[in-house]
User: Fold this.
Amino acid sequence: MPLVTTKEMFKKALEGNYAVGAFNINNMEILQGVVNAAKAKQSPVIIQVSSGALKYAGPKYLKAMVDAAVEDTGIDIALHLDHGADFEACKAAIECGFTSVMIDGSHYDYEENVAKTKEVVEYAHARGVVVEAELGVLAGVEDDVKSDVHIYTDPDQAVDFVKRTGVDSLAIAIGTSHGAYKFAGEAKLRFDILEDIQDKLPGFPIVLHGASSVDPASVETCNKYGGAIAGAKGIPEEMLRTAASMAVCKINMDTDLRLALTAAIREVLAENPKEIDPRKYLGEGRKRIQALVERKIDEVLGSANKL
Ligand code: G3H
Ligand code: 13P
Ligand code: ZN
Assistant:
């Protein structure tokens, strides 16, 4: 069975009021933790790769590992380019065999975002690949682009954008942000905007970036064993569950996996100072990522047994 696109995944997710998890990977252990969890839960899954990950591991290695995961698990896996910066990045991913790409024109002005997205949509659709775009700006850092404030998605603009670009799914800004420091005070998401968008674009797949919950237990373990991650705060899981039951059908998580892996490595090495076998600490990291993703599938996404 080959890699799949997200088309059917999103259709079923919208009908079933759940979401599919999109997890960032950079190496074999992260990938195996994620897909082993999805297999155990019989859940579809989206494996996503950023330009930083492509630079780190190389497209050929990442693609070959994801192909191996498809063969090994037999579950529905889509391979997605996360935050594609321009047409060239999307074209390269499509040529490499990705089944889904994101063109992130959110930092450009509206008309430029429309034009860039349309160009990628035409190229991708001609090759059977689906496209995600973004409208509105998430506060925080995305690759090298930093924004201090949220620019919430305008629902009327979202309708115009989808109509003019022909894009398959849309990432929106409702208060989430990338990384481990999402809120200084109380967590707040603009569900009113999400509701307005789903009313104006009925049946259209919405994507939530910056959706890690920043598990306090992982943060505590990191800090206990030499880390210095103070004041980290993520999106409460019940808010994500609410979003998943609405028009949100793709929920992006990277930071939660990073924290689980880092906590495992710190703990194993601190508890076993003589250990030099990478399989011991990376293997523990893989186990914790699997446990984390299984829990997300059950308690946040609602995507178990949806293959
Ligand atoms: O959106 C950001 C993702 O967490 C990917 O992060 O660009 O450091 O790989 P990265
Ligand atoms: P987090 O930093 O919240 O995990 O978000 C990841 C993401 O949106 C990747 O595109
Ligand atoms: Zn993102």
